[in-house]
Structure formats: C-alpha cells, structure tokens
Amino acid sequence: MIKCYLLDGEFKDIELEDFDKVVLSVSKNRAALTNMPLKAITELLNQLGKSIVRDKKLAVLDGASFISLWLRRDNLERICKLNFMDNSFLDHFADSGAGFEMIAQPRGIVCHWVASNVPTLSFFSLVMGILTKNGNILKVSEENKDILLTLVSGLSDLKIEVDGKEFSGKDIIKTISIVSFDSRETGHGEAFSMAADCKVIWGGADSMRAITALPQKETCELIPFGPKYSFGMFDKGSVEGADFRSDIRKVLRDVLMFNQMACSSPQVLFFEKSAKPIGEIAQTMKEELTGLPERLLSRPIPQHIASKIINTRSLYLLSDDKEVVQSDGLDWTILINRDPGLEEPIHGGCIFVKEVNNIMDVVPFVTRKIQAIVLCTSDNRRRGAFAKVATEKGADRIVLPGAAHDFTLPWDGIMALNRLVRWTILYSKKADGGSNAAG
Amino acid sequence: MNMSRPLSNVTLEDILQMPQYSLDDPEKNEVLLKLIKEQLPKTMANPHVKKLFEKQGIDIERIQRVEDVPFIPVQMFKYFDLSTNPNEKIARVIKSSGTTSGSQSIIPISKETAANQMKGLKSILANYMGQKRRVMIAIDHVGINDPKKEITARGAGVRGFSIFAKETLYVLKEYSNGELVLDMPVIEKLRKEYADKDVYAFGFTYIIWKTFCRQMKERGLSLKFNDAIVFHGGGWKKLTAERVSKEEFSRTVADLIGTKPERVHDFYGMAEQTGIIFIDCEHGNKHVPNFSQVIVRDIRTLKPCEVGEKGLIEVMGALSNSYYSYAVLTEDIGHLEGMDGCPCGRKGRYFRFDSRVERAELRGCGDTFRE
Q: What is the ipTM of this complex?
C-alpha cells in the first residue's frame, strides 16, 4: 500500500495501489512550473523562508533559521549561478559563447528517496527539484512527513508579481507529491523507480545499493547522496588560541545537531599536540556542552543507539588506556583514546577525541567516504595545504566550525542542480545568412 | 519481617536461610546495600572494576542507595575478565550462549559463589514448589550436563534446577549433527511408570516449544502425573519469528504435561546472575527474591523509573564473591508492576519483561567511514 499525503495541490491522507495518479498529476501540473521564470520561483521560496522563522512550530526545528537564510533569494540565485554560470539558461535559450544557444531543460519527474536521519533533508532535496523546474515525488518516512508537509504548505497562500505577471505558490505545490511506502515491497520500489526521470537518493549503504539496483528508464539520471562520514580537526594554533572555546562550542553544536546522525555530523575530533593536554581539552568540551541549549542535549535517542552508548561508555570506564567524560544521562559522551584512525559512529552525542602530532597525520584516514572535515586553523596556508591533499584523497568539504551542516552545493562532490537538468543546444542561422555554428 | 537480629547485622547466610519474598522493598534495600557494600572493597582486586570506580570518582563508603551502586552492562562480560578472586579460587567458568553478538560471556565461579548460588536457587524454588523432592524432567538431552564438557548456561540451568530432584530424566536426545529429538524410551517410561508421581519439569523456553511441544504434538502424545510444575526460561528471542504468546505457550505445555497453565512458570534470569531467577507468580508477575533487587532504568536518563514506566532492567545480586555481579545492566526492556502489593502475597518488587532492546540500525546518509 502506498500512502500519499500531497496530490494535485491537495494535502490529504489517501492510500493508493500504484503511482499512476501521482505521476499523472505531477506530469500534468509541471508545465506551470516550467514556464515560471526563475526570478518568480526564487521570490516565492524567499517569501516561504521568511514565513518559516515566523512559524512557532517550525522555528524550533533543527536548522530552521538556516533554512530561512538559505531560501533568501540572493542565496538561491547564487547557488543557481554556481551550477549554471548564467541563470538565464533556466528560462530561455541564451548565448553559450560557444557558437550556439543553450537552455537547461528540467529532466521531468524527480523521485526522491530520503533517509529519516535528518528531518529537514527532504526539504532541501525538494527545493533543488523546484529550482530546476522539475516535478517532484518524495518518498519520506512517516516520522518526518509532517515537517515536510508543513514546510511545503507554507507556499499555499503565497502570491507574487514579477514583471507585471502574478505567480502563485499553489502552482509549485501542484508539481509535488509526497508519499511513503514500505521499502521491502519491491513492487512499489520498482514502480517508483520506473516513474523517475531522475533519482535523488539520500541514504546509507544498504539503501543506496538497493535503490540503485531497481529497474529504471534508460535515460534516468542518478544523484546519490551518502553514505558519508565527517570529522573535525584542530591545529595547535587554534587549540592554544583565544578563540578555542568559541570554536569548540561551535563544533559541539555541529556534533549534536540532528542527533549526530547526519553525514555531515562530526564523529571524531582530532587535536594537534599543543600546550594543552587532551584531558584539559575534554574538560573545556564538558563545560561548553553543559552550556548548550536543552533542545540540543535532551533529544530522544533510539534504543539501539542508547544501548551502544551505554556499552561504549563502560568499555572505556573498564579499560586501562581509555578515558571517558560523560553527562549523567545520555546527553553527551566524550571518548578519549590513543588508537590511530577514525571510529565507527555511535551517534547520539558520542564524540571520540584523539591527539595527533600533526594535522597532516589525519590525511591517511581520509577516504571517498569523508563528507565534511571541520578544520580549525587560523593559518590559511596550512588550511589550503591540508585541504588540497584531503580533498584529493576523497573529502568533499573542508568547513569552518559551526558550518558542518550548512547545505551548500556542491554537496557530496556533486553539483546537483546541474545534474537535475538536461543541457540542450540550439544552432540558428545568423541574420547575415551564415550559421552560428562554431568553426 | 520477623528476624532475630536487626537488619544492620543480617548476613547473606541469614537471607538465604529465611523464606524468600519476606522482605518488603525498603527492608530489602537496606539489607542488600549493606551486603553489597561489604563486598565492594574486595572487587577492587579486579583492575577493570577498580578503574571503573576510580574514573567515576566513586567512594564506596558514600554509596547511600542501591541505585548508586555502579552497574556494569551485561555485554562487558564478553570483553573483560571481571573476576574478583585469584585464579586458584575459581572452581569453574560458565559461558553464556552469546546468541546476540556471537561472542560468549565468561563468568568465573568460586566454590563459595557456587554454593551461594545453589542456596539462592533452592530457596527461590522452595517458595514455588515446597521443600519436598520430586522427579525432575529435564527437557533437554543428558549431554548438556556432562561434567567432562565445558559448562554452558543451559547446563548450569539443568544442574541448578536439579537441586530438588530425587531422580532426573532427560526427555530429549541429541544426534551427532546437534539435532534434538524426543527420547522415546524415556517418554514411554514416563507415561507408563510415573503417572502417579509428583514431578517438576525444567527447560529452556525455545527448546520446549520448538522441539518438545512440536514433536509431542506431531506424535499425538501427552503425559500425565499426580502433580506437575513446569519452569522455563531463556530464549524468548529465539521464538520471535514463531509469534507465540506466553499464554499460548503455557496452555500448550500444560496440555502436554498434564497440568494447569498457571503451574507453568516462566522465569527471567541470566548466566551472569546465576542463582537469581525471577519466577512468574500466578498473576504473571516476576518476583524479586530477598538477596536481589531489580531496578528499571530510563534508557535516556539512566535514572530509576517509576512503577509502570518502561526501561532497561538492572539486576542486582549479593550471591557472588568471585566476580562483579552486584549490579548488572541487561539489554532487556521491562517495567515494574509494583512493590510489596502483588495479590500473590510475595513482598518486594515485581516486574514484567517487555522486550529486548531494539536492534534495528537505520543509519541514513551518515554512515561508516569504511569503503
């Protein structure tokens, strides 16, 4: 059984046998979005962003203020420009400078498989589909569907005027459908996959393998996000510097946000050897953790993660060569060991802490699985040198403390908007009778 | 409680000798805290336990409540030797089944611990079946209790329960490939020669259901005795796929052994706390004996839960002097049904087991670093 929560602009709760109605509705309504100028789309999303921080229910969401800032029109246009070089390619044929004109056509229907670890993930995925004027069908988890529905419903009453023409948020809503179904029902998975002109997948290794293996159209584009892993790195200068405490506070926010379940959640913090012993650093972390807002600390933890935290804490307490600093409950745990390398994530506010002789000692641990490295150094020469080798080894993003989860494109090494469109070209005869073909 | 000496002077021996379930909850907490605090300094002989106390800054003298005795998660028995006695004092080592992780718990038992465990179990069972010896039906195969083989939790269970046996009959046999089947000559002997006897049966829940019940039903067999009591425990997780309820289990077993469903007692226990089992009363509540305590801890805050609130079951016990067993945190979810108020008349806490800790791991896009 497929549950559908948004269809043809109507927010309802219906059960469907197949995706026929969903595909028909999104395909039919897509024309209005295709013909909407990018300026109108970004302005509607800009208005939506403003309304999110005004909505008391939404304002408390992890990342709500970031979403609001991210939806600012100038930001969206900047993201588009980074992907398309010239945003007019999204609205009409424009000169490519290579002897022909180009237009970025939407791929059609984008089907999104969104993991449940980050509640707002589906929204970012959807906005990418909207900016590229695609129809969007999102498979979301039951637990997160309401967040997405509330965010999307904010478009309902929005109307704006661009160049004397009125545009409505409802026209965008009509190009979206939100569904959920049991992934073990392979029939539904296959049908969902076959409906896609582009598959956007956010998930762990198992789901990634399963979804990529589903049958799909020969022309279908695949955009896989995850599975990934993130960590943090402080150099000697930053550990001994005046901003250390504030940097630690920012990194710890990165750690705790989204219950440490995101691909951009740091799992290990490396500290370059400095005048501060690792125990003193852990003490500073403890002080800063204690001062963090309650909503970051007292979040529900799934049973299997709670069990892992309890067992790992005890492993460290009973071991001779390991140390643990922990809260009374399971709010946070600092695990200190001397083993080189990364650690399997535990999640739920468990951060491994290690000392290294040099920040470059961490480079051998970097693989293609590394998403974000929160690098804390005020020495930009070192920063650049580290980033060059770390990204070459596989890391996708070298970011500042507090910015681990800031959704930017490229993400996971992918310029996603660029891949959500088909680049088409137009050769025309010049007014003087010649061709504008190159050569 | 009517005792000849004040609670502050009570010894473990006193507690083991007195009728079980006679202490109310505050009395038991007082007695247990005293007994455990007496033992804790000796546990410092174990370097791991010593580290655990040192790292948490725990001063044994300042422990005021049973809840404050540091717990050790049951999984730790798989990673550490938690022996608190020198090796020469260890009489035997029990190994748990290790079904969840694949590795086994190692539980070192001294002679004194083994004796305490036996006395503990005996006093618990006496409360449910009286002091009279009976014929014991072990729903397992004879090899499980082979003294020449390594002691498993299953073997220790059969051995422990045989304390009231004037004769033990094993109703299963094991083929060389490990398959368990009914030992038909023994079944026939029971049918023909024991119908007028008082018996008690013991077995692991999943073996009783998957082997004994299934094969008895397939053959259309049943047994009949003058009086029969059944004790079963361990392995509900192996029956998850079968979706059998406790009620259906009791009804089926009662029919096959010729007793009433309320005489089929599920019990909760673990190899790491041998000698302490929590047997269901006729009202379906698991009762805590005088030498033990159960704390249900909130899985998020680790604070003790109120009656009715679900959390992790922690089992405390005072029987061991050879390993750290004073507070063992399980991976089971349960809830307290009440304290001192069960209609069956047993005093102390009574609780129910609800489930194993969920194992599902949905990692999402944040996953391992391994390629």
A: 0.91
